[in-house]
Amino acid sequence: DAKTTQPTSMDCAEGRAANLPCNHSTISGNEYVYWYRQIHSQGPQYIIHGLKNNETNEMASLIITEDRKSSTLILPHATLRDTAVYYCIVRVVGSGNTGKLIFGQGTTLQVKP
Amino acid sequence: IAGITQAPTSQILAAGRRMTLRCTQDMRHNAMYWYRQDLGLGLRLIHYSNTAGTTGKGEVPDGYSVSRANTDDFPLTLASAVPSQTSVYFCASSPTSYSYNEQFFGPGTRLTVL
Lengths: 113, 114
Hints:
The complex is a heterodimer of chains A (113) and B (114).
Chain A: E1 9-13, E2 18-23, E3 31-38, E4 45-50, E5 55-56, E6 61-64, E7 70-75, E8 84-92, E9 107-112
Parallel strand pairs in A: 1-9
Antiparallel strand pairs in A: 2-7, 3-4, 3-8, 5-6, 6-7, 8-9
Chain B: E1 4-7, E2 10-13, E3 19-25, E4 31-38, E5 42-49, E6 56-57, E7 64-66, E8 76-78, E9 87-94, E10 104-105, E11 109-113
Parallel strand pairs in B: 2-11
Antiparallel strand pairs in B: 1-3, 3-8, 4-5, 4-9, 5-6, 7-8, 9-10, 9-11
């Protein structure tokens, strides 16, 4: 699975959009980009995933560059409850794979009032 | 409420003792996983199971064993606990191991080995 690089920490004002970048320059064609987050003392929570098209759900939007070497997770209106560690993960999807997720260090997002 | 439950929530254990961490899911997911989380190291996969009756080793399997007798349960056993196994343990499940399905995580078990 490809390695990802994320900033260690970021701040965001409450009510503003939070844009979390992720670099995955060695991503291969059959690898998806996933985002999870972990609120303090809780288990990780799935946010969104994508292959090459931009994706949006009720939690966030995922923007993947055309060359797929980087992506950005967007929380459109951050709240204090969005304070968490955000993990960008790339994984191969397909028969024969374990489905394991390789978590890096993630980005600690602090939403401030 | 559907989801994953883990027990115990926390445990303090003497080194050398045997311990089983329990994980149960009621979503009829085929795939289940055990991760450990240590400060500064993120989550690392210990063992996984693609379907009932099968298991596999993850990144850090030494000192741990698992079984998957049925779809719902995936216990993790420490045969003889050591202090380096002090960690927070998370169980997770997903409908399958090979598709793009998300993984659902349990609330975790905080284990301290003295």
